[in-house]
């Protein structure tokens, strides 16, 4: 009874980590460490980006297994940080299984930043990128507006847990439409830089970094599947923005962007 | 140059915020991004090659993030992800797409190859630093925990 609860809690911690964008080896490590801290010596976990399998063998050679399927992911680095802290506390022998479970429940339901603040972050990224590329402050203001609008358009799609490829096609198209509309006002000089800055918000940096770290840690299966996911997202962004650019070129002349 | 370093600090910091990091993590992530872009700007005139400069910048990013992770007791991935963003060759990726749309396939391929080689040099930086940290990992883990 107790051991199945331990395995469940450990797998739950791994699930939160994987859903928030943790690396494979970190998830496996966390699961193994939590189990070992609670006295289950023989434990193996197998983690791929879409599932977690944990199996433990007690001293009487009876094994227990938990499988968790990961359906959708929402990247949240703060959750990884907190699960990491929790697993340190467990290993330092400070928490009972019940307390750990309650803490994990709280981490899973953790409130993120409010919508206005995360929109502000994305808008600031766009504005800062425009200046980074050497455009003027006026262009940065335009990119700020376009980045905020794109994020607000994407928000319901992300909440509704649509397919990632679909979300990024929509995002690329929304960014391109916004920039084309802004360019038509005639106030901005470097509209192509503005478009790059806004599209940069969508870039799958977390998936790419995870993929590289997975491959280096020896998890080739997960690493390659994440590389293909990142490539697919990049193509989706290009399809979304490219189709809008092609359309606006035929409508407003080829030097629109 | 200073403007680029400051804006890359700012970009990484905001990206950390967009990934829900709290203020302390955001500041360290910003430092990671700013430092790696500084390394890029210093190395590029020395070797005159984007490939080498991206490699060094990626090494700096990884080493800094691993050290900061040990000091701040936070996972390194939370600094690497936002810090990676200024290094992404956005211009080359964009012109790949733009030239394809315009029908200039040759120009599109040359920017595609440039972004691909950048990706390779960034991942080489990952490989080198991760290889070293992974070597020592079991030891310090068992010591600390």
From TrEMBL, chain A:
Superkingdom assignment: Bacteria
Keywords, ordered alphabetically: Cell membrane, Membrane, Transmembrane, Transmembrane helix
Localization (cell): Cell membrane
Classification via Pfam families: ThrE
Residue ranges of domain Threonine/serine exporter-like N-terminal in the record: 10-246
GO cellular component, one term: plasma membrane
One term of GO molecular function: transmembrane transporter activity
Topological relation to the membrane, as annotated: Multi-pass membrane protein
Gene Ontology biological process: succinate transport
PANTHER family linked to this entry: SUCCINATE TRANSPORTER SUBUNIT YJJP-RELATED, UPF0442 PROTEIN YJJB-RELATED
Family statement drawn from the similarity comment of this UniProt entry: Belongs to the ThrE exporter (TC 2.A.79) family.
Protein name: Uncharacterized membrane protein YjjP, DUF1212 family
Source species of the chain: Paenibacillus aquistagni
From TrEMBL, chain B:
Topology of the protein relative to the lipid bilayer: Multi-pass membrane protein
Record carries keyword Cell inner membrane: yes
Keywords: Cell inner membrane, Cell membrane, Membrane, Transmembrane, Transmembrane helix
Domain of life where this protein originates: Bacteria
Span of domain Threonine/Serine exporter ThrE: 4-129
Recorded family membership: Belongs to the ThrE exporter (TC 2.A.79) family.
Keyword Phosphoprotein: no
Gene Ontology CC terms: plasma membrane
Organism: Paenibacillus aquistagni
Compartment(s) where it occurs, according to its Swiss-Prot or TrEMBL record: Cell membrane
GO BP annotation list: succinate transport
Protein's UniProt name: Uncharacterized membrane protein YjjB, DUF3815 family
């Amino acid at each position: 009874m107790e051991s199945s609860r331990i395995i469940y809690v450990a797998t739950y911690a791994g699930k939160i980590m994987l859903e928030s964008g943790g690396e494979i080896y970190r998830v496996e490590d966390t699961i193994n460490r939590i189990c070992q801290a609670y006295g289950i010596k023989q434990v193996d976990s197998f983690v791929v980006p879409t599932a977690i399998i944990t199996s433990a063998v007690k001293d009487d050679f009876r094994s227990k297994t938990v499988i968790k399927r990961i359906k959708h992911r929402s990247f949240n680095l703060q959750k990884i940080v907190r699960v990491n802290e929790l697993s340190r506390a467990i290993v330092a022998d400070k928490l009972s299984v019940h307390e750990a479970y309650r803490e994990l429940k709280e981490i899973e339901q953790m409130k993120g930043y409010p919508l206005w603040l995360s929109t502000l972050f994305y808008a600031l990224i766009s504005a800062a990128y425009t200046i980074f590329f050497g455009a003027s402050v006026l262009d940065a203001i335009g990119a700020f507006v376009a980045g905020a609008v794109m994020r607000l358009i994407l928000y319901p799609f992300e909440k509704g847990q649509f397919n990632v490829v679909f979300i990024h096609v929509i995002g690329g198209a929304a960014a391109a439409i916004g920039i084309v509309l802004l360019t038509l006002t005639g106030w901005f000089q470097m509209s192509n830089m503005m478009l790059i800055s806004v599209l940069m918000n969508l870039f799958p940096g977390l998936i790419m970094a995870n993929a590289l770290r997975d491959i280096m840690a020896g998890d080739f299966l997960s690493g390659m599947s994440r590389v293909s996911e990142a490539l697919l997202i990049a193509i989706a962004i290009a399809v979304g923005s490219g189709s809008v650019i092609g359309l606006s070129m035929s409508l407003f002349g080829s030097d629109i962007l | 140059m200073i403007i680029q370093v400051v804006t890359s600090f700012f970009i990484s910091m905001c990206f950390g915020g967009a990934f829900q990091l709290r203020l302390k993590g955001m500041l360290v992530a910003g430092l990671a991004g700013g430092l790696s872009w500084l390394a890029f700007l210093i190395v590029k005139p020395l070797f005159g090659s984007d490939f080498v400069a991206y490699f060094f910048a990626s090494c700096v990013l990884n080493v800094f993030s691993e050290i900061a992770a040990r000091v701040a007791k936070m996972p390194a991935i939370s600094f690497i992800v936002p810090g990676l963003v200024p290094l992404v060759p956005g211009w080359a990726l964009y012109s790949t797409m733009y030239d394809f749309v315009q029908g200039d396939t040759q120009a599109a391929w040359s920017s595609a190859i440039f972004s691909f080689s950048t990706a390779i040099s960034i991942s080489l930086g990952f490989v080198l630093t991760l290889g070293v940290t992974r070597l020592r990992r079991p030891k310090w883990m068992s010591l600390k925990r």
